[in-house]
Amino acid sequence: MAEPSDGKQRDESLDLPGRHIGQPFRRVDGRAKVTGTTRFADDLHFPRLCHLKLVRSTLPHARIKAIDFSSAADVPGYLGSLTGRQMPHPFGILPVSEDEHALCIEKVRYVGDPVAAVAATSEEAAYEAALRVEVEYEPLDTIDGIDTALAADLDRIHDYGDGNNIHKKVSMRFGDLEAGFAEADLELEDTLFYEGNTHLAMEQHATVAVAEDEDRVTVYSSTQTPHYVHRALAKVLELPPSRIRVIACSNGGGFGGKSDVFNHEIVAAKMALELGRPVRITLNREEIFYCHRGRHPTLMHLRTGFKKDGSMTAQHLRTALDGGAYGSYGVASTYYTGALQTVTYDLPRYRFDGVRCFTNKPPCGPKRGHGTPQPRFGFEVHLDKAAEKLGIDPADLRLRNLAEPGSVTANWLQLGTIGLRRCIEAVVAGSGWRERYGRLPHGRGLGLACGSYLCGAGLPIYWNHMPQSGVQLKLDRSGGVAVFCGEAEIGQGSDSVLAAVVAEVLGIDLADIRLCVADTDLTPVDLGSYSSRVTLMVGHAAHQAAERARKLIAQAVAKRLEVPRERLIFAERRVFDAADPEKGLSFEDAVTVAEAKWGTLGTTGSYIPPRAPGKYRGAGVGPSPTYSYSAAVVEVEVDPETGLYRPDHVWIAHDIGRSINPVLVLGQVEGSVYMGLGEAMMEEQAFRALPRHLSSALVHKTPSLLEYKSPTFHDMPPVTSYLIEDPDPQGPFGAKEVGQGPLLPVPPALANAIYDAVGVRIDQVPIQPQMILKALDEKSRGRQARYGPKVFPEVDFGEILRVLTPAEGGDGHALNEHGEKKAHGMSGADGTMSSRDEALKDKDGAVTTK
Amino acid sequence: MAERTTTLELLINGESRVVAFPTHHTLLEVLREECGLTGTKHGCELGECGTCAVLVDGQPVLSCLVLAAQMSGREIETVEGLQEGNRLHPLQQTFADLNAAQCGYCTPGILMTAKALLADNAHPTRDDIREALSGTLCRCTGYHKILQAVEGAAQLAAGEEWTPAADSLHGATPPDRGSE
Fold this sequence. Notes:
- The structure holds 2 protein chains of 2 kinds.
- By secondary structure, chain A is an alpha/beta fold.
- Chain A folds into 3 domains: 11-38 and 467-607, Aldehyde Oxidoreductase, domain 4, CATH 3.30.365; 41-140 and 204-250 and 258-291, Alpha-Beta Complex (Aldehyde Oxidoreductase, domain 3), CATH 3.90.1170.50; 168-197 and 294-458 and 618-787, Aldehyde Oxidoreductase, domain 4, CATH 3.30.365.10.
- The longest helix of chain A is centred in the middle third of the chain and has 28 residues, at 534-561.
- The two termini of chain A are 32 Å apart.
- Chain B folds into 2 domains: 5-81, Ubiquitin-like (UB roll), CATH 3.10.20; 90-160, [2Fe-2S]-binding domain (DNA polymerase, domain 1, Orthogonal Bundle), CATH 1.10.150.120.
- Helix content of chain B is 32%, strand content 15%.
- Chain B contains 6 helices and 5 strands; from the N terminus they run ββαβββααααα.
- In chain B, β1 (5-12) and β2 form a beta hairpin.
- Chain B is elongated.
- Classes of the chains: A alpha/beta, B alpha+beta.
- Chains A and B meet through α1, α2, α10, α11 and α16 of A and α2, α3, α4, α5 and α6 of B.
C-alpha cells in the first residue's frame, strides 16, 4: 500500500472540468429524506426490543449513599437494572480528561447526571420503574458559575485539574507583547460575555443496542463520532474492539451535540449484553437539555494595540469558560478560545490566557464553531470600536489588516489561501455599505464582521500515526461502485461529497454508486463529523481511492484498446480515447476488462493532514490543512422606545475554496446564519436555583423547545449569500469547509449593527431588548453607552509559555517548555495539546497506566 | 401496569387496518410503534416543535397531542403516503432539489403541513407559507430553502414549469463595488 496522501500532490485536480464537482445536484440521500425512509436510530425495531431509562440525579452535587431498586423491581415488565459499579472504568472523549462514568459511582455532579438504569418490556414500564428507584444522597456545595469555581474553599467537583474547581489553565505568549503595545498609537480594552447555548438538534438522541453473542454487541446510535464511541465502549465494557460494532445512523441534526460519547450509549450496550435482547433508549427533550455539551459560557477580556493606520501591534486575550461538570472536549475548547485569533488578520504579537472551570451544570463541549464564536464576537466588536476611534471605516480596517495567504501566524499556524478580501468586498457591495453605513436614520443600522474556521483539526483526539480518514472502493463487472467510509452523515451532506468525488474521478453517475458508511465493522475509520473535517479529509481519501481504481481500469483498457493510458478519458460512464472519442468501452465493460486482468477489484485511499509548524505545548489545537473565511453585514431596525429589534437582512460571503455542490454549500451558509442569529438574539442555556422549599437545586431555566427560544420562520430575515471560490491546493478539488465558519461573523455583525442604529454597545450575547434600553438609559444620563460585563476575574494563570514568533526567528518551540514538561506527569496523555512529534515521543517513552 | 387496550380500524394513507393499542397512546406512538410508519418523527412529544405533524381529514395535526383512540372514521395522511406511486410529490421534488431537507428530521412534518397549505391555497405568498409553517422548527436550513421549495411545489402542482432560481442553487452574484 502506498503512503497515505499528505494532501500536497493534488493541484492537478483543480483543473478537472467538473461534471459533478461545482454543479448543484440533488443530494444522494435526498429522496430518502423527503419520503421519510431515512432510518434514524429511534426508527429501528428488532424482535424482543426492550426499553431503557436512566435514573438521573435530582441534586447538582452530592455523594451517593445508597440506591434501592426493590420497589422498581415490582413494576410489571421490569427486566433488570444497572449501577455504576458494574461499569467501573472511566471514559471521556479526550484522553486527558477521562472523568465520566457510564453511571455515577461515588458522586453526582449536576442535576441530570445518571445514577442508575432500568430496563423493561415497555417504555412506560421502564419509566415507572425508574421513578421508583430510590437514591439517597449527601449534598455537597453547589458550584454555580465561574466566580464560585474560582473560590478556593468550596467542595471540589473533581480531584484533578489545575486548581480547586479549575479544570484547565493555559497561558502562552507569542512575541514581545510589551514592545508591541509600546509601538501602538491606540490601546483598546474590552470585557465581553458570550452566554452558553445548546445545539437543539430536532432529533432526540437515541441508541439501540443488540446483543449478538455473550461477548458481542452492535450499537446503533445518533452519533457524529462512531469511531470514538467504539473506543469508549471497548474500554468500559472491557471487550476487544473487534467484538463491538458501532453504526452511526443518519443524525437528525448534530451541530456538535452528538460528537461526545454519551453515557446512555454505553449503558444501552451493557444492558443488551446483560439481558441478551435488543435495548433501546431515546432521550426526552428535557434530558437532551441536560446532556448538552454545547457552547461554553465565556467571559473575555481583550487588550489590543493599534497604529494610526489601523494595523495591529499586539493583542492580549483572556478567556474564562464555564465548563460544567465534566471535561468533555473542554480542554480543546479552552485552547480554541485563543487559537484562531491570528488567522484572519495580521497580528504580529499575541498572548492568550484561558481558564476553564468545573461547575455543577451539564457539561459544555463543542457546538458549531467550537470555542471560537466567543472570541470572534469579542474581537469583531472590539475592531468596530477601534475603527471608530481611529476614524477608519470598519470594512477598510479589516481590509487593511488581512492576514497574508500562505503565511505562518504568530502562534505558528500555517495559513492557506484567503478569500476574505473578496468576501468583504462582496458584502460591502451587496449591502450598499459605502453609501449607507453611518448614514441611516436613527433606529436603523448596518454592522460588519468577519470570521475564519478550520477545515478539519490537524490532529486526532488520541495519538496515532494512522490515517484520519479512509475510503475503500469495491468495483465489479456490474459497473457499480461500492464506497465504504466511516464518515457519519449528520445532515450536512457528507454522503453526497463522498459519492461526488468518486463519481467525478471515475466519470460515472451518482446513481452508479452505493455507499456504506459509518459502520465500524465494515467501513475504514474516519474520525467523525466534527471540526469541519469531512469534506476535506474524506474528500482526499475518496479521491485517492478513486484515482487508484481509475489507474487499474485504465491500464486494462489501454491494453485492450491499444491506446496509450494517458489518452484515456473517464466520462459519461465511458472510458475512451481522447484522440478518438468513438473508440472506447462503457464503464461497465471497462471494469469487466480490468476485473479479468487483475482479479477482484478493490482500492483504498487515506488522508493525514500535513504537519504543522508549531512545536510548543498547546500547538496541537489550531492547525488545519487550510482555513475558511467569511464576512457578513447585518442590517437591523431597533425601536429605541422598547429596545425591540429585528434584523432586516443579512449579506454573507463565504470563502469555500471550491464548491463540491453549491446547493449544499448554500444550505450550510444559510443554516449557519440562522444559528448565529439564534445565539446572538435569544438562545440561552442558562441556570437558576430552585426555591429553597424545592431543594435549591441548580436547574436549567428553560429545558423545553417552547421555553428555550430559537428562531422560527417568522424570525428569520432574508439572507443574500455569496460563495467566493478561491480553490485551495490543500482541499480536494480546491474545496474548504462551510459547516461552521459562516456562523462566526453573525453575532458580532448584529451587535455592531445595533451600535450603528442607536449608538449603544451591547458587549454580550444574546442581546436582549432590555439590555438596549438599559444602555440607552445610561447614554441619556451621560454615562457609558454600553451594556455588558465590567470586570474579568483575577486569575493566576501560572507560568507563561514563551514562544518566539516566526518574524522573531523562532523555531516553533517554546523557550521555557522542557523544564515545565518534565514537571507535568500528564504531558504524555495531554491528547490534543502538543505537536504530534512531541506527543508521540512522550507516549512512546511513557508507561501506560490505563 | 394494567392497561386498557383499544382496537380500532384506522384509515391511514387510504388503507384501512385494524390496530390494537394501549388506549392512552398518542397517534404518534401508534403510527410509529404499532403501524411501523416511522416516517413521522418526534422532537419533543409535547406539541412544541411541529415535527410530528400529520394530516387528519386534510388538516395538520400534531400527532403527539392527539390520541389514536380519537381517530375512528378519520382520514390520516403521513409522509409515507405522499408519493404518487413511485413518483415524488411536487413538494418532495422541490425539497430534494433545493436541499430544503438537510438532516431530514423535521421534513416529514413540514411536508405534510405544506401539503395542507397548498390544498387550501394553490398560490400562497411567502408570508402565507411562513404563517402556515411557523409552528415547525428546523435547525438546519435557516428556513429559506423550505420557503423556496414550497413556492416551487406550488408551481409544479399548478402544472407550471419550475426551474430553481440560479441564486438558490449557486448563491448570489456580488455587485462589483466593494473596494476601499
